[in-house]
Amino acid sequence: MSRAFNFAAGPATLPEPVLRQAQEELMDWHGVGASIVELSHRGPEFMEVAAQAEADLRRLVSIPDDYAVLFLQGGATAQQALMALNFTSPGQRVDYVVTGHWGKTALKQVRPYCDVNVAADGEPGGFRDIPGRETWKLSPDAAYVHYTANETIHGVEFHDIPDVGEVPLFADFSSSIASEPLDVSRFGLIYGGAQKNLGPVGVAVVIVRRDLLERAGQPRAEILDYRAHLKGDSMLNTPPTWNWYLAGLVFKWMLAEGGVEEFARRNARKAGLLYDVIDHSGGFYRNDVAVAARSRMNIPFFLHDPSLDAAFLERAAQNGMISLKGHRVLGGMRASIYNAMPEAGVQALATFMRDFQQRNG
Amino acid sequence: MSRAFNFAAGPATLPEPVLRQAQEELMDWHGVGASIVELSHRGPEFMEVAAQAEADLRRLVSIPDDYAVLFLQGGATAQQALMALNFTSPGQRVDYVVTGHWGKTALKQVRPYCDVNVAADGEPGGFRDIPGRETWKLSPDAAYVHYTANETIHGVEFHDIPDVGEVPLFADFSSSIASEPLDVSRFGLIYGGAQKNLGPVGVAVVIVRRDLLERAGQPRAEILDYRAHLKGDSMLNTPPTWNWYLAGLVFKWMLAEGGVEEFARRNARKAGLLYDVIDHSGGFYRNDVAVAARSRMNIPFFLHDPSLDAAFLERAAQNGMISLKGHRVLGGMRASIYNAMPEAGVQALATFMRDFQQRNG
């Protein structure tokens, strides 16, 4: 088929102009006689690509100068282990606010190193809402407070930055970074895998307040040390050059499209369209998340009759819409609509959902 | 320019048919309406790509069934930390044989966790030879013995597998895996970044004897645990799908070209050609490595007059040969001639070197 509207949760759809440029450049990058994926990361070509990507990301996300930016391997999950190793002393208290599957998974990376306090837990409520800030049991001596800005499986998103006082706030922004303006200065550390809003899988971004890097941390190999990575310009060992390059192309595309302010508008319209179809379906479709905590990025929904699931997915695919099957943890359907998902794709899905209901309601 | 002969040490040249296929498939993989880099790693499309890549690698490198294969992020360097965490108890003795820059760098990843014994060290000799096996000071109680099969900077390569008795042998094969037949059963663990002989940067391969995974290891996050990665089919978190896919295409290409036996013949011819030019240059070119330890993969060489270096590189580039500048650690020149470097490229370089000598000798 031609290009479908791809609602995958990550790896996710990429901007078509970016893919087209990467395709054109794949055999010979800018006339140097080789692909960017074949060139030394230490050569002038890739060094420029890398520096430009950082500059563009800084502009896109408005990253203050007193924050360092790292481009690393290992995805968001590896960073969850590294933040314990780099910013806590052995056995130190850390506070985790858990509002979905990924916040819960993060605990596994930290428990071997820290005294983990789950300060708030949405699981008893089925991860359908964010526990009220007044219920959080924060520790005054915590090394940091961690939360997940957007939960891709449960479709739960923070729409405000929580106030946690003087303790540095760490946040997993894998699935919502650059989707709207963000006051980075409120955070100690922001991190995310690139494969949702920032580009391809295989590279993760860490944005960290420089003074935190002075913490001694725990015994660790050089390759697990953020200071060493910063000193080595994220090239302590060979970085994933193609993935970094492709992320850089996505940053340029987002800037050219109008930056995070423009994507905030588009994303609000896109999410609004789908929630509207769901909420006006008279129960044919259902989203269980409290309205105030609904995600703009990932919209899980269920058909009132699960026996229609297979037909829904099949007909959607016939209509050029793929990857709508929900995550195995939750079942049902899920539409992931990051920056690169065009409004036309969401409009097509909304139309299809109404039509499917009419035929099967 | 059109495609040059690219002698980069890694990231390195890729087989042109592989790049061409990746280019053709970049916008739409096998008619599914999306790029492979946009599809879920858990979907049937990528699961098949991943399984096929493992099957092809097993066939290519003749990996016995009692060895597990992992496809991971973090490059070879991350594996150097993970092998300490997974296969040693805290502070346990490990033996390292150091024959070049990368073997030395590996120590930094292990020292925080282990009692490192440098059993043999080529550095006093300028890393120009491999210390004789009879001089190695191995420890009977070591968790493993580690060496670097091929040193990309110093151009030093083991041409036999050292006998270390009952202690498991671990080896960094980043730059020579699949370049010739290998008896995997002699090893406890083989690992390497893919960016030299196996494909693109951003994915590393670990081949490990399954019984070793029963060792308790040291306290570690789940994402640093090989057992967890194996249980999760190397998809504990989102894997670098495009890199894995491209490596898979390279495996298929190598099998179609005749497998490791054929590449062993080609690589011997290629290296022979360059060493021949150097050794018959009457000192115009120089390689300092003891003949028995010379690398088939990376050939560092020096011009007798370093003031000619810039002209050599410039004229080489004009003749369609790039990335010949030596690593900053050693200076001079370096020709990296992995599997994907065609014999025509090495012939062109040999001709150019003779010609350059004639004009400047």
Written account of the structure:
2 copies of one chain form a homodimer. Chain A is α/β, with parallel strands linked by helices and 361 residues long. The first copy, chain A, is built from 9 helices and 14 strands. A 7-stranded mixed beta sheet of chain A has the order 2-10-9-8-5-3-4. In chain A, strands 11-12-14 form a 3-stranded antiparallel beta sheet, with helices on one face. In chain A, 55% of the residues are buried. The mean pLDDT of chain A is 97. At the A-B interface, α1, α3, α4 and α6 of A face α1, α3, α4 and α6 of B.
Short description:
Chain A has 361 residues and is of the alpha/beta class.
CATH architecture of the largest domain in chain A: 3-Layer(aba) Sandwich
Question: What is the 3D shape of chain A?
Answer: globular
Which fold name is given in CATH as the topology of the largest domain in chain A?
Answer: Aspartate Aminotransferase, domain 2
Unreliable runs of chain A, pLDDT <50, ≥5 residues? none
CATH class of the largest domain in chain A: Alpha Beta
Strand fraction of chain A:
15-25%
Query: What topology, given as strand order, has the largest sheet of chain A?
Result: 2-10-9-8-5-3-4
The rounded distance between the terminal residues' Cα atoms of chain A is 29 Å
Q: What's the total count of β strands of chain A? A: 14
Helix and strand succession of chain A? Answer: EHHEHEHEEEEEEEHHHEEHEEH
What class, by secondary structure content of chain A? alpha/beta
Q: Main beta sheet of chain A, described?
A: 7 strands, mixed
Q: What kind of assembly state do the chains in view correspond to?
A: homodimer
Number of domains of chain A: 2
Q: Quick one: CATH superfamily of the largest domain in chain A?
A: Type I PLP-dependent aspartate aminotransferase-like (Major domain)
Rounded radius of gyration of chain A (Å): 21 Å
Q: Largest interface by residue count?
A: A-B, 71 and 71 residues
